Amino acid sequence: MQTREQKGYVWKKGDWWWIRYADWIVEHGTMTRKQDLASKLAPVLPEHRRLTRPSEDVREEQKRFMVRINGSRKAPECNFDLKSFARKVWLPSIEGRLSASTLHCYRYYWNRVLEPRAGALSLRDFSTPVAQRLLDEIARQNPEMTKTTLHKLKSMLSAIFKLAIQQDYRNGPNPLRETSLPRARESGETIAYNLDTVLAMLRIVPEPSRTVIAVAAFAGLRRGEIEGLRWEAYDGDTLKVTRAMWQGIEGEPKSRYSKAAVPVVSPLRGFLDQHRLRRGNAETGIMFETRNGTPLSMNNLLNDQIRPALDPAKIPWSGFHAFRRGLATNLHDLGVDDLTVQRILRHGDVSTTRRCYIKTLPEQSVAAMKKLETLIDQTSLICNGSATGAGKVELVH
Q1: Which end of the chain, N or C, is less packed with Cβ atoms under 10 Å?
Q2: Which residues are bridge partners to 343 per DSSP?
Q3: Are strands 9-13 and 16-27 parallel, antiparallel or unpaired?
Q4: Closest CA relative to residue 221, chosen from 209, 231, 233, 229
Q5: Distance of CA 157 to the CA centre of its chain
Q6: What is the fold, at CATH topology level, of the domain defined by 195-377?
């Protein structure tokens, strides 16, 4: 599908020099030859207002512009709009690399926020000013949106154009590189359960919620990682996080840093060992399962057992992640250094220097958890199934 090389036609209109040209565009999955396309080329300088023909600097800009247009003659099928590229190239490229929950999040923001505003724009001609106007428009139309969400949207767009450059769908640099986040409200303060709140929960919730809360509070596992636990991952001293569940879909943990072993403190060991006995001294299989042999949903557990126990006692519920934040806070208050806390929580969002060159030995993680164990022991919490309904384990969900 070769076409002759174009020079483009330049004319002056108002305060701008314009250029007219033709181009191949992939639109709604169909490749179409568009004629009489026009684009602003350069502003008219004061000393050139009387000119009827473009000056030398404008002709140079014309050549640069048409190099990009003529380059598409070799592969017009690459002239995607943003919608087509995202759906045909970008989203399929991340499906096998990201967790199900992260992929769901990306699809949500693409379908609800980005595609309606930018899907029809040309991938090749998308520029930094266009990107900045897009971010500003999203912030203006959604005053409730937080800066964290805007940063996520910018990162998604940046990833789309990074892939487009890598696969030769357009030239660099990445148009998102020089954009700035618009002003937006900060995210709300997050909640961390303190140790007293955790122990109060453990005294009143029934099993298996009691053991689930112990795992979340004393090992810092995420809800999906708890759903994905198997008995093979528990050896009495550690819990090896190797998989996670999201809406019934089994997958990898959140990141490669999340795929690691967590020390098990003595009180948590007591909860797990008693839970194992109630499950017939299981050695293999799903750790928290329904009668149907499927992983127990944390949402169902919350609605069936946890909230009915906490609400009458006026103990506020702030989500499963508050246990994870609480563990970090408790360890920090005990004087455990931040790098060791990071290792226990299996975070990967630290600086490259700290992550790659400063190593925390496993013995340090164990020692840190021992400190927490001593603090829990001082409360005289005994894992003896004394909580209300502690012996009940049958859930059908």
Answers
A1: N
A2: none
A3: antiparallel
A4: 229
A5: 14
A6: hpI Integrase; Chain A (1.10.443)
- pLDDT profile of the chain (397 residues), mean per 10: 75 93 70 82 91 91 81 58 91 85 91 95 89 96 93 96 90 92 85 88 94 93 92 92 83 76 88 93 93 92 96 94 85 70 65 29 58 65 47 36
Residues 6 or more apart whose CB falls under 8 angstroms from that of 219 comprise 239, 262, 263, 264, 268, 327
As given in the structure block, the two tokens for residue 297 are: 């949903």
| SS3 label, residue 227 | helix
DSSP-derived secondary structure for 159-200: HHHHHHHHTTSS-SS-TTTT--PPP-BPPPPP----HHHHHH
Select from 368, 379, 298, 320 the least CA-distant residue to 193: 320
Residue 390: closest CA among 180, 127, 210: 210
| Closest to 237 (Cα-Cα) out of 280, 212, 209, 272 | 272
DSSP 8-class letter at 17 = E
107: its two tokens: 């699809």
Cβ proximity of 270 and 229 under 8 Å: no
The three-state (H, E, C) secondary structure of 54-105, written as one string: CCHHHHHHHHHHHHHHHHCCCCHHHCEEHHHHHHHHHHHHHHCCCCHHHHHH
Label the pairing between strands 16-27 and 30-43. Answer: antiparallel
Classify residue 18 by burial, with Cβ atoms within 10 Å: 0-12, 13-18, 19+.
middle
Burial category of 282 from C-beta neighbours within 10 Å (exposed 0-12, middle 13-18, buried 19 and up): middle
CATH 1.10.3470 fits 82-166, yes or no: no
Q: Where are the domains of the chain?
A: 9-78, 82-166, 195-377
Amino acid identity, position 130: V
Distance CA 264, CA 195 (A): 17
